[in-house]
Amino acid sequence: MAYNQDDINAIKYLNTYLKEFPDEIYNQNFLEEISWQILYKGAQSTQYQTRLTSAIGSYLTQDVRAVDVILNFLRDTNAVIRSVALQLASAYIDNPIKNEVEKLLINEKIWLVKLEVIKACGNMKITSVKKNLEEIISADNSTYEEKAFATNALISMSDKINKEDIEKLSKSKKANLRKLSCDLILSLNILNVKDILIDLLNDPISEVRIASLNALSIVYLDNLTKNETDQIIKKTLNDQDPSVAITSAYFAVLKTDPRGEKLLKKEIFSENIDKARFAASVLAHLKNYSLSLKEEILKKHNDPYVLVNIAIGLIGERKLLKESSVILHDFLQKHREKIMVETTKNTLFETLIPSYVKHIDQIPNYPESIDQMTRLNLFSMLSIVDFAKAKEALIGFLKQKGWGVTGFAAATLLKEGDEDSLEIVRDVIKDKDESIRIQAALVLASIGRDENVTKILIDAYKSSPRELKIQILESLGHIRSKESINFLIETLSEPYQILRVVAASSLIRSLNS
């Protein structure tokens, strides 16, 4: 029945004979086959959301059978599904998938999908497309995003490169290729091209000058003469582009030149709040430098984002912990607008700012998901420094905002959390409020794969609305516990196909735990 796509009757009879033939039905291969047939049928659905869920569910199994499913989705007529499939494909670097991605690099017409193709080429290290990527970087009609993605793809697939190649890139007429030369020096820690970087400080394009300063700050910091250092600072500290000047200040502080701290202070206390926040982030990344300036900013500045960026850096340094923890706690309590971390001004520095993330079709509630992940990381910092009000603040966060990172976001955004960062969530798992317990359990399951929350999630399932049921089933799949198997078999009888698809994926993962 399942092989003939009659999954509803297949599951009906499976449950009927469950007690009579337990050895046969609880056979892992048997249950996997039934579950895969449910996923295959979902992949052929006319409903966009069901097909999308089947793609994600297949990917999460990490089973070789997912290759054919993802391969078919790479050819789907729906651009959003092709985009999702490309992001999932990187985990399956089989030749058929690589070949299909290579074809898409040439043939894909939809811009957003094309970006994912370029990214996939880098993630999968498809070296046969290097020339295609270089053409994208140098083409006048390529967008900024295409050039940036192609640059990152080339860097990710480059294991080594000689000085001649770096020199050739650095003298290219195309700014993105000149920037690529700096990025490669930084990425591959190339030590015999200092003169090339110093020459590129004169480049007319600010992104190239920033990339050169980054490489000099990281790779060549201890290999510059006093005269070279002074010339670099003189040349770049008063650059007309504020991002270049602030990056130069970072370099200067590392070289213990007082001009660097002076500029950072000036920009942080300037009226231009965008520059102030970026400069604060740069200062925060300077661990074990400029402590008195950081303390002054905490006392005198009135912009919450400047304060919280400095506080994050100080918590990382384990300096001024009391003051920094209070600032971070107050920020999380008082500022309800969505937040995010960006690196657009300089990839070396993560800056906490108000979110400008927009909705995208392939990730439901994407701006909310980014906001929640960012906030959870900040709550984790409070937990790690044992801030007294951290638990209370997290309970308020979980109660106010349901944990909405599901489906595709769970597959691509979440990473397994370390034990320290999840302790604060475990502290609230026994809260009297059922909604708090469920939200905490979802976090621990999705990020921590904590088997101890399995019963909480199963008990909550029956009375939950459909969207929460999907989240619970996905979370049980993240946990991969044998304890979930009976429940997931029962859930295969759900009347909604999307629930059956999610349950099937989670069952496969639980069987293979």
List keywords for this structure.
513 residues, 30 helices
Tell me what portion of residues adopts beta-strand conformation: under 5%
State the strand order across the main sheet. Answer: 1-2
Helical segment count: 30
Number of beta strands = 2
| Quaternary structure of the protein | single chain
Structural class from helices and strands?
mainly alpha
Largest sheet descriptor: 2 strands, antiparallel
| Overall mean confidence score, pLDDT | 88
Rg over alpha carbons: 26 Å
> What is the overall silhouette?
flat
- End-to-end span in angstroms? 27 Å
Unreliable segments (pLDDT under 50, ≥5 consecutive)?
403-418
Question: Percent of residues in helical segments?
Answer: 55-70%
Please provide a written account of the structure.
- With 513 residues, the chain is an all-alpha fold.
- Among the domains are: 83 residues, no CATH class; 120 residues, no CATH class.
- Helices cover 67% and strands 2% of the residues.
Q: Which helices and strands, and how do they pair?
A:
Layout: H1 7-16, H2 22-25, H3 28-43, H4 48-61, H5 66-74, H6 79-89, H7 95-107, H8 111-123, H9 130-138, H10 144-156, H11 163-170, H12 175-188, H13 194-200, H14 206-218, H15 226-236, H16 242-254, H17 258-268, H18 273-284, H19 291-300, H20 304-317, H21 321-334, E1 339-342, E2 351-354, H22 366-384, H23 390-400, H24 407-412, H25 419-426, H26 434-448, H27 454-461, H28 466-479, H29 485-491, H30 497-511
Antiparallel strand pairs: 1-2
